[in-house]
Amino acid sequence: MAPLKERTLAKKRRRRTSGFLSQQININSSLGSKKEEDIPVADIVNEITNRNDKAYAIKDDCVSIDISPGPTKRSLMLTIDAYNLSTSAGASSIAGVKPGKDWINQDNYAQVDNTEELGSPSVYMVFDGHGRFGHVVSKHCKAVLPKILAETGYDQERAISVLQSDLESSAIDIECSGCTCVTAIVKQNRTIEVGNVGDSRAIILQRSPNNTLKALPLSIDHKPSQLDERKRILETGGRIASKHCSAGPSRVWFEYNNTTMGLAMSRSVGDEFAHRVGVSHEPQIFHHKIEPQDTCIVLASDGLWDVYSNDEVAHLIQTCINGNYADWNAKIAAVFLTKMARMRWEHISTEHIDDVTCLVIKIEPQRTFQFDF
């Protein structure tokens, strides 16, 4: 049998190739194992601490270990941020309806679940295209933004700036076409970073003591009616008004080929002409430290938020969970949200129905294991 130190190093090398949860399962199973390659937990702990009679603690971004001595045995308490290891996310997208044409869904979404590689966050994105080539813009963003984020060290401001430059140099016509972008980066220090450009939205749902869900916003919709957004646009030469006199949402108006065009948001990617009059591609960044009561994150295009409030979405998710907080399906929840949104749209109009895209990210709780030896 190889010396303990060599076997420990070999074990560490094997661990790097698998998810951290499976590592702990391997350690646990080695307690009673007779296999030659397994190392008893007591031997590992004693080698690490080199102090059989002292308490020992180590903390990392996603794992903490506490070793406490007792009169006859020692206890090892292992706490794991399990959401990093088995992130559960599901998405659903439904095309809308527009009069007189076969409509192409302009929404897109992307998800990168980095569950195997420690140090890499998981990334979730929703894009809502607009304009003649909005579907092309959102599809392009879906294809390139995950890679750009990784290359920029997950710096969302830099990444969106690179994305905008990439669109401007591409063959895609973005003169009057663009898309929104809401991104949630789930980091391994139990922090969520949300970057938002436009009027797609992110919320987090928290479980209250009476087992109901409440919604907490993780982003702000970028509308021309907001005072700070309005100020920037007006100072850049843009004009803000509703489409039909005083009725309807405010839009940013600009001239394009002797035609007056309006955009119903104050930030976007793409939209070359709108950006000349104050529309910005700069994302607004929000941070949230994951708390024990956090249940899930919902990212969605305005096809959901135009017909359901944050609190109504919380109620719909709660209905889908049906009291089973330990074992519910994020994909089913996302499908449920899109279907319910479509039903409400059809109740409002049969000719003008927006695309609906929802991405639900289930937040797994911390897990604690105790081994006595």
Automatic annotation (TrEMBL):
It comes from the Eukaryota. Gene3D superfamilies: PPM-type phosphatase domain. One of its GO terms (molecular function) is protein serine/threonine phosphatase activity. CDD domains: PP2Cc (cd00143). Residues 88-363 form the PPM-type phosphatase domain. PANTHER family: PROTEIN PHOSPHATASE. This is PPM-type phosphatase domain-containing protein. It comes from Leptocylindrus danicus. The lineage of its organism: Eukaryota, Sar, Stramenopiles, Ochrophyta, Bacillariophyta.
